[in-house]
Amino acid sequence: MKKVKYYYNPSTLRFERIERSFRTWALRAFGFLCATLFSAGLIVFAAFSFLDSPKDRFLKQEIARLRLEYDLMERELDTLSYVLEKLQERDNNIYRVIFEAEPVSAGMRMSGIGGSERFKRLNNYENGQIIKRNMLQIELLKRQLVTQSKSYDEIARLIEEKEDMLQHIPAIQPIANDDLTRIASGFGMRIHPIYKTQKMHEGLDFSATTGTPVHATGNGVVTKVEFEQGYGNMVEIAHGFGYRTRYAHLKSFQCRVGQRVKRGGVIGLVGNTGTSTAPHLHYEVLKEGVKVDPINFFYNDLTDEEYATVIELANKANQSFD
User: Residues 41, 47, 51, CA angle at the centre, nearest 5°?
Assistant: First the structure.
């Protein structure tokens, strides 16, 4: 039953029934509707501001998963960069040193790498910096791998050439020296046998009896077979790759100019010609026209222990034979 409401009318001194007009009812209904709509709006605003819809929750989970994937990718790229860096170090410091090739410069390895502006389109994405960083690293790795691949192609070519070079460069002792006692004087400042003063000795002296066979120390072509002042009877061999060898004070020749010789082939006999005080072989190695210590080239027929003994003998400060 609807409640009836009264109010006290001071004019009539009576309680009178409250009568509401349609306008009053309409205003109240409109106010209630507005309040309801306002409250609903607040609830909806709060819900959208502080609560996620199922779709929003799914999208946020997807974004978190993608961010994790990019982080894992970044770690993998860091690992690949580290491995590639080690390959580059081995390439420059081992392979190219062995094959006497110029190292690949850092500038050449980084050539063609553009700036971050190439990926500025990614700046509009929420996680654009992560994506851009990974894209730059991938681009860098691609460029470096191309350079490294070309470097390995060059190394492969050098290996083929090296096989030929190893046959040509001086690599054995020019006379039989199994007991390692035939090295009489080494490379360096030595006492001249005639002038008795310190003088640069630019080769090795091997003591041997007259007629001992003298062997070519590497494949090559004979360029000189002649008598020269000081050297006496001398043979010179061009080995290619910048190497030449000289064999002096020979008794006789066993080769001719223009002849191709193999390592170990006999090219002459030990003698005592020229400026020589006793039968011996004076042996020189030239690299690009510069005389170098021949002791550094006896690696093909000596063990580590024998090589150490030869170096010790060659370094003794004694009198040369020429």
Answer: 170
pTM to 2 decimal places: 0.50
Amino acid identity for residue 220 in this structure:
G
Asked if the model's pLDDT at residue 47 lies above 90, the reply is: no
- Is residue 309 exposed (0-12), middle (13-18) or buried (19+ Cβ within 10 Å)? middle
What does pLDDT average to over the chain? 78
Angle (nearest 5°) at CA 287 between 168 and 157:
50
Structure tokens at 5: 């409401």
Q: Where in the chain are the domains? A: 6-50, 56-168, 183-314
pLDDT in tens, 214-268: 999 999 999 999 999 889 999 999 999 899 999 999 999 999 999 999 999 999 9
Please say whether the beta carbons of 309 and 273 come within 8 A: no
For the purposes of burial, counting CB atoms within 10 Å of the CB of 311, is it exposed (0-12), middle (13-18) or buried (19 or more)? middle
For the domain spanning 183-314, the CATH number is 2.70.70.10
Give residue-wise pLDDT tens across range 169-226: 898 888 887 766 677 666 665 555 555 555 666 888 888 899 999 999 999 999 999 9
| Strand segments (E) across the chain | 6-9, 14-17, 183-185, 188-191, 198-201, 204-207, 213-215, 220-228, 232-240, 243-253, 260-261, 266-270, 280-287, 290-292
Amino acid identity of residue 319, one-letter, is: Q
Strand partners, 243: 240, 287
For 246, phi then psi, to 5°, come to -125, 140
Instruction: Report the distance separating Cα 320 and Cα 204, nearest Å.
Output: 9
Q: What is the DSSP letter of 66?
A: H
- Cα separation, 287 vs 218, in Å, equals 14
Section 298-318 average pLDDT: 59
